[in-house]
Design goal:
It contains 10 helices and 10 strands. With 312 residues, it is an alpha+beta fold. The chain folds into 3 domains: 42 residues, Orthogonal Bundle (Arc Repressor Mutant, subunit A); 179 residues, Alpha-Beta Plaits, CATH 3.30.70; 65 residues, Arc Repressor Mutant, subunit A (Orthogonal Bundle). The strands form 2 sheets. An 8-stranded antiparallel barrel has the order 2-4-3-10-7-9-8-5, surrounded by 4 helices. It has a two-stranded antiparallel ribbon with strand order 1-6.
Length: 312
């Protein structure tokens, strides 16, 4: 059973999962030790399921984000999961309703990598890929929650060996791989795996955070939300993106992507518990955009195939 302090801490995490112990302590006017005690309780009660490391993708050489929509025939989740896991650039994938079957986000180093990913998918699907759509993410307008309410998959393990844009010691790469597999891993466990002193691991952590390779550790909350995705075609996209940005900042459950190209100017993902919230949001969106909305399509995100937190 959640006590009042636990609820207040969850409320702060709901607004910003990057909130540190110090930030929570100051806002709630309680000692950091008390905050830590209640967070441990939330972990024990499996409300916070684990903590995950936020990697700085641009500093690791992943500079361009793309939205990838796929229409496939007769393909199991296991097959798709295997295909997406073959490429470290793919950070999430959902089954969706509507004109396409799969929605995915990828982060790549160059535009050519997108074609590489499509070639891999086509080859592995063996003729079952019926259609695809690719859009370059121009701006990301987001609420700090992002997709972290989903807890079905572990993070993708990035292949740091292939990253040429930065220099990184082998020991640092090994630490990052371990963190990527398990955000809850302790300094002692890392030290035991690498057979080095825990003090050295702690020093390496501070270095990686200072160099902004690791941005933050944030909790994963299991609050049983579902997702709906809205695809928008806008008459005046430059004017309306600011409107959408304000709109997203006012709603804790909204994420917005704006695209440079492709069939849509923007997509909006909302998190909901009851289907009526989706219908209400649809009406709210149409009223907000008015005559500037050319067309609006939406779908329900079904079973999640692959997910990793995107640390923009």
């Amino acid at each position: 059973m959640l006590d009042q302090t636990g609820k207040k801490i969850l409320g702060l995490y709901f607004e910003n999962t990057r909130a540190s112990l110090t930030t929570i302590s100051k806002k709630l006017k309680i000692p950091k030790s008390t905050v830590n005690y209640h967070i441990k309780k939330l972990e024990k009660e499996k409300i916070i399921t684990r903590n995950i490391a936020l990697f700085n993708y641009p500093n690791l050489g992943f500079c361009a984000g793309y939205s990838l929509l796929l229409k496939v025939a007769d393909c199991s989740d296991d097959d798709l999961n295997s295909i997406f896991h073959m490429n470290d650039s793919v950070v999430n994938a959902f089954r969706i309703t509507g004109n396409f079957d799969i929605a995915s986000t990828v982060f790549v180093r160059t535009v050519a990598n997108i074609q590489d990913i499509l070639d891999i998918v086509k080859k592995q699907l063996k003729g079952r890929l019926r259609d695809s759509s690719v859009s370059r993410i121009n701006r990301l307008i987001f609420h700090p929650l992002k997709k972290e309410l989903y807890t079905s998959m572990n993070p993708v393990v990035l292949n740091f060996e292939e990253i040429q844009q930065i220099k990184m010691k082998n020991e640092d790469k090994q630490i990052l791989r371990i963190i990527a597999r398990d955000g809850n891993v302790s300094l002692v466990e890392i030290a035991n795996q690498l057979k080095i002193p825990a003090q050295r691991v702690a020093y390496k952590f501070r270095q990686l955070i200072h160099e902004k390779i690791i941005l933050h550790f944030r909790p994963i909350l299991d609050l049983k939300y579902k997702a709906a995705i809205f695809h928008l075609k806008l008459i005046s996209s430059s004017k309306l993106l600011k409107t959408l940005e304000v709109f997203a900042n006012q709603d804790k459950n909204v994420n917005v992507h704006a695209f440079m190209d492709g069939p849509f100017q923007a997509t909006i993902q909302i998190l909901y518990q009851d289907y009526s919230e989706v219908v209400h949001f649809n009406d709210k969106l149409k009223k907000l955009l008015g005559d500037d909305l050319k067309s609006l399509e939406w779908c329900i995100a079904g079973k999640e195939i692959l997910r990793e937190v995107l640390p923009y």
